[in-house]
Specification:
Strand 1 and strand 2 form a beta hairpin. Strands 3-2-1-6-5-4 form a 6-stranded antiparallel β-sheet. Helix 4 crosses helix 5. The chain folds into 2 domains: 91 residues, Orthogonal Bundle (434 Repressor (Amino-terminal Domain)); 152 residues, Beta-Lactamase. The chain is built from 13 helices and 6 strands. By secondary structure, it is an alpha+beta fold. The longest helix has 18 residues. InterPro entries: Cro/C1-type_HTH (IPR001387), Lambda_DNA-bd_dom_sf (IPR010982), MLTR_LBD (IPR041413). Pfam families: HTH_31, MLTR_LBD. This is Helix-turn-helix transcriptional regulator.
Length: 267
C-alpha cells in the first residue's frame, strides 16, 4: 500500500537525520580522520545497537521489513532519542495505530461553546492539524487575522507561518515556530499519508522558506502547556501562560486557554 511505503520512507529519513547528529566521540568510537558525512556510519550504528548492518541499511532504505520492540529500543538508545523522538520512531515503525479520520469530525455545539464561556481569558479549540474549530473574542483579539479567511477554516499553523502580523504578536517567533514544526512532525508521524497533514505541510512549505528549511531537520516535540511572550495589538509585550486540555471523547481536539502570567490560569 502507498501509505505503508510512505511511512517506511519517513522512517528511513528520520533515522538518517538522527544518525547524522551523533558523533563517534559521543559514543566512544575512536577518531579515524576526515569523514565525508557528519555523524555515525550505518555500520557503526548497527554495531553499537547489536544488529546486522545489512538489516539496518534495509530499514533506512525503507525496505518492507518488521522491526521488533527490542531492536527499535536498541536503535533508540544508540541514537540517544528523547522520549518524544522514541515514540515517533516506534510509530513510524508501525507499532502504534493511526486513527485520524481523513475528514474532521464535527464539533458539538456544547463543546464549541466552551471557549466563549471562558471569556475574557483567550481560549480556542484546535484539532490535530491545528484547524481552529472554536475561538472566543479575547483569542481573536490576541491573535489578529486568525479567522480572517472566509473560504477555509482558521488554522494556527497557517497563521504562524503565513500571516505577517504573527511575527509582531509572537515575540520569540523563531523559537515558537520551530516548536510548532516539531509538533507537526510528531502529529504527522502518527498519521502517515493522511491527506489533511499532507495538504497543510505542502501549503506551509510553499509559502514559507522557514518551513522548507526546518521540516527536513526531523525535530519532534510534544507540548501541553507553557509560556509565551506575546505583544497584543496596541499594547506592550507581556508574558502569557497557556494550558492545553484534550477532550475526553475526541482526544484529537484540544482546548487551549491563555492568561497573562500575573493572573491565575483558568482550568
Amino acid at each position: 500500500m502507498q501509505q505503508e511505503e510512505d511511512q517506511r520512507r519517513e522512517l528511513g529519513a528520520f533515522l538518517r537525520s538522527r544518525r547524522g547528529r551523533i558523533t563517534p566521540e559521543q559514543v566512544g568510537l575512536p577518531h579515524t580522520g576526515r569523514r565525508r558525512t557528519p555523524g555515525l556510519r550505518r555500520e557503526e550504528l548497527a554495531l553499537l545497537a547489536g544488529i546486522s548492518a545489512t538489516w539496518y541499511t534495509y530499514l533506512e532504505q525503507g525496505r518492507d521489513i518488521r522491526a521488533s520492540d527490542q531492536v527499535l529500543g536498541a536503535i533508540a538508545s544508540t541514537l540517544r532519542l528523547d522520549p518524544h523522538e522514541r515514540e515517533h520512531l516506534f510509530r513510524l515503525a508501525g507499532h502504534a495505530p493511526a486513527v485520524l479520520a481523513e475528514e474532521p469530525e464535527p464539533l458539538a455545539a456544547e463543546v464549541a461553546a466552551v471557549p466563549h464561556l471562558l471569556q475574557p481569558q483567550p481560549a480556542y479549540i484546535i484539532d490535530g492539524t491545528y484547524d481552529v474549530l472554536s475561538v472566543n473574542r479575547a483569542a481573536g483579539e490576541l491573535f489578529p487575522n486568525l479567522t480572517a479567511a472566509a473560504d477555509r477554516p482558521a488554522n494556527l499553523a497557517r497563521w504562524t507561518f503565513l500571516e505577517p502580523v504573527a511575527r509582531d504578536v509572537v515575540v520569540d517567533w523563531e523559537t515558537e515556530a520551530r516548536g510548532l514544526v516539531a509538533r507537526l512532525r510528531m502529529l504527522a508521524g502518527r498519521h502517515p499519508g493522511n491527506s489533511r497533514y499532507t495538504r497543510l505541510i505542502d501549503e506551509l512549505k510553499a509559502g514559507s522558506t522557514h518551513m522548507r528549511d526546518w521540516w527536513p531537520e526531523y525535530d519532534v516535540q510534544v507540548q501541553h502547556g507553557g509560556r509565551k511572550r506575546l505583544r497584543p495589538p496596541g499594547r506592550e509585550a507581556a508574558d502569557f501562560v497557556y494550558t492545553a486540555f484534550h477532550l475526553a471523547e475526541q482526544p484529537e481536539l484540544t482546548l487551549v486557554i491563555y492568561s497573562e502570567e500575573s493572573r491565575s490560569v483558568v482550568g
